[in-house]
Amino acid sequence: MATKTYPYEPHSYVEELPETARANFAVWIDSIVRGDRDAHALAEKLKVNVVAPDPFHPGGFITLHQGLLFKDVALGITWLKDYTAQKAAKLAIFGSIASRSVTDVIEAVIEAVTDYPDAFVNSRPPRDLQQRILFRFDCGTFNDLDLAWVQRKAVDQVTDEDMLGVDAFSGDQGEARELSRRVIRGRKDHTCHWTGLTIPAGEPHLVLSEVMEGDFITTRHSRLACWFHVYGGDLALAEMLKPAEPPLAAAA
Fold first, then answer.
1. How big is the CA angle at 77 (ends 72 and 81), to the nearest 5 degrees?
2. Are 101 and 135 spatial neighbours (Cβ–Cβ below 8 Å)?
3. Helix 66-78 and helix 99-113, axial crossing angle in degrees, nearest 10
């Protein structure tokens, strides 16, 4: 059995689905197995079979793996051709959350498995894996595997020179004057200015020292944040990783 040594290797499109969409997909499959009429009717419309004969138990059936079913569902939805019907099918199977990200992955499947020239409603060339992951970060629908993929890329690709070249604020700090920038490997944990995540002790990161309106300011920027700037093309995407702020306490 193959062991994954890198996120998305071996690649499976269904793993790219946002978590809510994938959970809804599993519910839809289960509904068909349990005999739900609406779910079964949609599967027939899409020409999708969710079960197959069990090779080890004559007369029995097994539910097919999500990865196989997702390809068939993607093809079935695309071949509906009518946009309204496609939208309704995606809503019934994957839910309304992250619909743009679901469509993005479906288009990638179609590009990979068919030469169907009119598959794409918006006539935009499908994105590659990195572009799809960045798109999900931009939409706020990235999953744990997307994050793991970017983290691994940051380790493999980002150099000290890359970090030293990062324009962390793109002039957004007004009259701030940079005093120094350096890459260090800290003796203790720190917090990344952009992602809000912990920079573990010993991990290289960029330290910027500036003075603004008479105040000295030091900010730290993780290797992960720098990857978004250098290789992802948009440092602001790193902010999507910041934990949500807790609600303000009610007034006493």
1. 135
2. yes
3. 90
Question: Rounded to 5, what percent of the chain is helix, strand, coil?
Answer: 45, 15, 40
Give the contacts of 115 (CB within 8 A, at least 6 positions apart). Answer: none
- For the stretch 74-123, pLDDT in tens is 999 998 979 999 999 999 999 998 899 999 999 999 888 765 545 444 44
Continuous segment of H or E residues that includes residue 227: helix 223-230
29 — alpha (psi -120 to 50), left (phi > 0) or beta? Answer: alpha
Distances (CA, A) of 141 to 67, 178, 196: 19, 35, 18
Separation of alpha carbons 17 and 15, rounded Å: 5
Give the integer Cα–Cα distance in Å for 191 and 200: 9
Which tokens go with 92? Answer: 């019934």
Question: To the nearest 10°, the Cα dihedral for 20, 26, 29, 31?
Answer: -80
Q: Which amino acid, residue 110?
A: I
Given the DSSP bridges, would you call strands 51-53 and 61-63 parallel, antiparallel or unpaired?
Answer: antiparallel
CATH of domain 158-241: 3.30.1740
Q: Where are the domains of the chain?
A: 13-149, 158-241
pLDDT in tens, 190-239: 999 999 999 999 999 999 998 887 789 999 999 999 999 999 999 999 99
